[in-house]
Amino acid sequence: MxxxxxxxxxxxxxxxxxxxxxxxxxxxxxxxxxxxYDDRWSSDSLLYAVDKGKIxxxxxxxxxxxxxxxxEELSLGVAGVAxxxxxxxxxxxxxxxxxxxxxxxxxxMRLSFLLTRSSFVAYPLYVKLGYRDAVxxxxxxxxxxxxxxxxxxxxxxxxxxxxxxxxxxxxxFSRDLYGHVLRQKxxxxxxxKISDSLKAMxxxxxxxxxxxxxxxxxxxxxxxxxxEMVVTAKKNMDRMFREIECGDKGDYITVxxxxxxKQIDYVGSRGYMTDEHSWEKVMVAPLKKxxxxxxISRMYGLKDGKFCLLGLDEF
Length: 315
Ligand SMILES: CC(C)(COP(=O)(O)OP(=O)(O)OC[C@H]1O[C@@H](n2cnc3c(N)ncnc32)[C@H](O)[C@@H]1OP(=O)(O)O)[C@@H](O)C(=O)NCCC(=O)NCCS
Prior knowledge:
Elements lengths: L1 E4 L5 H12 L5 H10 L8 E6 L2 E15 L2 E13 L8 H15 L4 E7 L4 H7 L3 E5 L2 E5 L11 E3 L5 H11 L4 E2 L7 H7 L8 E6 L2 E11 L2 E9 L2 H11 L7 E4 L5 H9 L3 E3 L4 E7 L6 H7 L7 E2 L7
The structure holds coenzyme A.
């Protein structure tokens, strides 16, 4: 068995594996775009286990700068974990993950994050490799209210010239949070370049003083899903929620408040049914024995609800 990079394997075979295992359409031009625009990606991000000329397993390793109580910490972000069904349970994912961990530790990285569901068969693999649940991805739901939207709307559609304001507002919003909050320069520029559908999902919170925040929301049928909200002032949150909670059709509005405990408490105070126990998890593992979980928890304010990994920063 050999361990190879993306430029050494057949991209069509890799595409097939990703569609098969993850329903992820990883085409050569997508890989090129990710490496070109997303600073977390590089040409060595994709690792493959190749056995007798066939791709049998894949793992993606990203270099992600994170914010801790002590400053900046470059962490590993693991994604794209997949084995071919013909080669399952033969230890290939374990070999690739261990190889990635060793390479990252050699580069000086001390810990690794990943996103998964505890209902997936991959969960015991991660636990065996030393990963533990860091936070659950909460879900909060409320019935839509049958009333007219307020006359003065605080939300408007996204315009191209908003990108700088969005970067600035995220910086203000994330000042007292830790985790995946160190977005690269001109973040929205590249984010919009690699996602065709995102533009239509961003709504700007427009106040008399300028851009006060944004939300990323989409309709699922007539119901509303808020995937990310970055609004700095409570009065603007109040106005925004009064507006988005109204619907003449649909049953529920669902919010994923991933911006720390403050967001969960806020939606709770608005009467949302909140389930903090979810199948969807952010997991973390030390890459160096000297780093204890307790220390990781302190670094990222896990117990104080200060950890943040918003929808757009998922990997
Ligand atoms: C999850 C997945 C990547 C595992 O790949 P793999 O090469 O078979 O993994 P390994 O052989 O290294 O398995 C290591 C351990 O993981 C656990 N594991 C793997 N597959 C499992 C399964 N089907 N049921 C229960 N545990 C499983 C076991 O603890 C296993 O150790 P063991 O065989 O000694 O008991 C593979 O099943 C897959 O591609 N699944 C679909 C895609 C996916 O869910 N990816 C993860 C997204 S977060």
